Amino acid sequence: MIRVLIADDQAMVRTGFGMIIGAQPDMEVVGEAADGVDAVAEARRLKPDVALMDIRMPRMDGLQALRLLAGPDVTDPVKVVVVTTFDLDEYVHQALLGGAAGFLLKDSGPALLVEAVRAAASGDALISPSITVRLLQHLSAPAPAGGDGGLSPRELEVVRLTARGQTNAEIAGELFISVGTVKTHLGSIHAKLGTRNRVEIAAWAWERRLVS
Q1: Percent of the chain whose pLDDT exceeds 90
Q2: Which ranges carry the HTH luxR-type domain (predicted)?
């Protein structure tokens, strides 16, 4: 079972997410929090597989809570999926830098929410396709030398599609390969680039202008 913590200051949102998660045969809600301080405390106490984290919460916002739970200096990071109403560029940038294992808009729908939880639990990450292209452009920096990272042409194709927010199934369909082959390519890409999840692959691609 994937154990999920839900952190949001709106009770109705917590209830809605709880119903979606609870309806999945492989998931259970193990705790809730209405602000960032409680979210950090509950995450450390319950050690969930995945935490769903809103950004705008009282006492401590979700981005600060994210950094405390999943930042680069955290020894045993929690897999945090940021779920918010606000698709502001700065929020996404901070979430990715803070170690988020996914970024979804609240109107993304139940299917994408469930997929994001499963992706995070398996060590992957998912960003709402509706915001991936626009927002990751703002991570762009001057392309480092040797921009292909030693990736094969097929791996670069997988990277570009991943950076556009496509799921493994969508990538498989577009490239006419199996989902298992996509996962194999992603494993090789992670090894070559030193990335931990899809978010970091997407950021790497945008920084090198591999996606237009």
Answers
A1: 40
A2: 144-209
Tell me the per-residue pLDDT of 139-166, one tens digit each, with 9 for 90 and over: 545 455 456 778 999 999 999 998 887 8
Domain housing 42? 2-127
- pLDDT of amino acid 98: 74
- Burial (CB count within 10 angstroms: exposed 0-12, middle 13-18, buried 19+), residue 110: middle
- pLDDT tens figures, 33-56: 999 999 999 999 999 999 999 988
Q: Is the separation of the CB atoms in 72 and 96 below 8 Å?
A: no
pLDDT at 202: 78
- pTM listed for this prediction: 0.70
Task: Specify the number of domains making up the chain.
Answer: 2
8 and 99 share one domain: yes
Look at residue 126 and give its three-state secondary structure.
strand
| 109, 133 Cβ separation under 8 angstroms | no
One-letter amino acid identity for 47? K
Half-sphere exposure of 62 (CA within 13 A, CB side): 27
Helix (H) or strand (E) holding 67: helix 62-70
Please, are residues 131 and 103 in contact by the beta-carbon 8 Å criterion?
A: yes
Contact criterion met (CB below 8 Å) for 100 and 82: yes
Strand order of the β-sheet with 27-33 is 27-33, 2-7, 50-53, 80-84, 102-105, 126-127
8 A C-beta contact, residue 204 and residue 125 = no
Q: Is residue 144 part of a domain?
A: no
Q: Residue 20 has what pLDDT?
A: 94
Residues, the chain, total? Answer: 212
